[in-house]
User: Fold this.
Amino acid sequence: KAGVTQTPRYLIKTRGQQVTLSCSPISGHRSVSWYQQTPGQGLQFLFEYFSETQRNKGNFPGRFSGRQFSNSRSEMNVSTLELGDSALYLCASSPQTSGGAGVLDTQYFGPGTRLTVL
Amino acid sequence: DQQVKQNSPSLSVQEGRISILNCDYTNSMFDYFLWYKKYPAEGPTFLISISSIKDKNEDGRFTVFLNKSAKHLSLHIVPSQPGDSAVYFCAAISTGANSKLTFGKGITLSVRP
Assistant:
């Protein structure tokens, strides 16, 4: 079974631009979560999508948004990029079923997209 | 406010010895804990987990201990191997509705041959 894939793997943008990152979950997984990893803050939860609906959201500004398609693929968008948005953005898929966001199933992470904002 | 804390940023251990990675949490609602390992240029991979109804879970060379009263958990790796060199993240969750995984900042483990 193919793992979680993320595209692109590396991206360089300038301040003020916007960026869209893509995540394809493991086949059959319906939950997709996004995380930001920085050296100073570690891994921080951005949001989770399940069946095309945002089910949970972390403490990030509205510049960070996402969506999920009917095939469970997910995109994350960051508008008006700031230098501090430079990070590794990780996507994780989970086989959890509907009925609450209790993540007892383990999440499977993709390799991440390294975003550099200049 | 960091609800999951990994206060030691790095740990260096001799091959064959025990590695002990510590993690503290502040949210008493957390009832499920996980450890992830991350190599450079790869996403984190699940290592081992423990429910709050247990105080120990073992899987091969990896054992996680949970001390609920101290809000502390630790990951023991015995014996440590050079291939264990990676960043280890502790994560916690309250398994109710709308819960989400909260991660620590990670510990870089180096196992010296």
In short: The CA atoms of residues 81 and 105 of chain A lie 33 Å apart.
